[in-house]
Write a structure and sequence with these properties.
The chain is mainly beta. It has 2 domains: 145 residues, Jelly Rolls; 108 residues, Cyclophilin-like (Cyclophilin, Beta Barrel), CATH 2.40.100. The chain is built from 3 helices and 20 strands.
Length: 283
């Protein structure tokens, strides 16, 4: 078991996601930053789908009730184990009674804490990912004991991980044309692709809304599928980027689709972060 002593700002349990239920309106969920999530698990030889803690903006304080190994990946949160700072992308042995404390994010905004053997909460619709309405809570809201798995993982002596340098300040988000991209005129396309945009305060695991609006009168469309990374334009010109907990259908024009790398990068950005769109193919 691990014990959540302080929950942080927004800490949730996430595995790779909840698939094959989008036809009944269930979001995929899963890690906002799939790359950091995968690296944290890989360091401990966990399977990719192993559930971890996704820690946003400020991480939790945790007491361990059994010996195990941990790793962290993603945003820098000044993490300490028993008062001693530890590094990201490195396996650490923890003993029963040890205390892990995570601070506020300094570079990026989401960190992934992987535990050898993984988190073993109940699966709902094939996944442990928290999502309010599917699981009892959408995130960890109180002090709680969380079950963890068993593992025979032991780091090999002399083996080290090459330092990982991910530029979370990179402003470029790579996009493909969305199904309704063609209804934009050339001026609107130029504004979208040449201007700098900023993330508004309306950003969470469901969607990111941008501060700038596109001057346009685009028609609504028949309700159509959307996926993480779909960028919709509302009738008032608002630009909304669907994220991991987002809806599965929408009635607004889908003008862009982010690639996987850019969804991961966007997940490490927050209010007022500047972004620019780079079109990967033309229609």
């Amino acid at each position: 078991m691990i014990e959540i002593i302080r929950r942080g700002i927004y800490t949730s349990i996430q595995d790779a996601g909840r698939f094959n239920y989008q036809n009944i309106g269930v979001p995929i969920s899963g890690p906002m930053d799939q790359q950091a999530f995968g690296i944290a698990n890989q360091i401990l030889n966990n399977a990719y789908n192993t559930a971890v803690l996704e820690c946003s903006f400020m991480g939790p304080k945790i007491k361990f009730h059994k010996n195990t190994y941990i790793s962290i990946a993603g945003a820098e949160m000044n993490t300490e184990l028993n008062g001693e700072k530890i590094k990201s992308y490195t396996p650490y042995k923890v003993n029963e009674g040890d205390i892990l404390s995570m601070g506020t994010s300094q570079y990026g905004c989401r960190t992934y804490l992987s535990i050898s053997g993984g988190i073993k909460t109940e699966k709902v619709l094939g996944s442990r990912s928290q999502f309010k309405g599917i699981t009892s809570e959408g995130n960890i809201t109180k002090k709680v004991l969380i079950p963890i798995g068993k593992s025979d993982f032991i780091p090999k002596v002399g083996v080290s991980l090459k330092p990982i340098n991910i530029d979370y300040e990179n402003e470029i988000l790579e996009v493909y044309p969305g199904p309704e991209f063609k209804i934009l005129d050339n001026t609107q396309k130029k504004i979208l692709l040449e201007n700098i945009h900023h993330i508004s305060s309306l950003n969470n695991r469901m969607a990111f809304r941008l501060e700038e609006k596109l001057i346009c009168k685009l028609p609504e469309i028949w309700t159509s599928p959307v996926i993480p990374g779909t960028i919709q334009c509302t009738p008032d010109g608002s630009l909304i980027i669907i994220m991991r907990d987002g809806q599965v259908t929408g009635g607004y024009p889908r003008i862009f689709q982010l690639n996987k790398r850019s969804i991961n990068l966007l997940s490490q950005k927050t209010t007022r972060s500047p972004i620019r769109f780079k079109l990967l193919s033309k229609v």
